[in-house]
What we know:
mainly alpha
Amino acid sequence: MPAKKNTKPDPEVLAEAARVCACFNFRKASRAVTQLFDNTLHPGGLRSTQFVILVAVAVDGAARLPALARMLNVDRSTLTRNLQPLARKGLVRISDTRGERASSVKLTAKGERVLVSMIPLWEKAQKGFVERLGGRRWRAMLDDLNSVVAIVHEA
């Protein structure tokens, strides 16, 4: 009779994985930062993810969905799903022009007003985060985060 194989995970291996796993730790940090920004942006009626999308659309002007998805590092179906509530609120207009290869999204006048009203809330969250972290650490971390994205895209 063959020896019974151990099917229980080794607690020490799991503890080490939780301590050093890039995915685990980036997601944990991302959730913490998202919660901070969500709490600060809440009075303006947007979640941080929605604010980021509006900013990206505003930066691009009339963004084609594939380019916007690349800018935000999300797949197109996730982007489309996240744009729908913004479109229902009248903050963005998604064009599905026949004959064009890809739909585009643009801020509406209401979207521009909402975005302008959100900037002071975002500034409060950003300033508080950077002050607690330290400006030098934030600049270094921002460089590191950009490197992480580039490295992952190379893989």
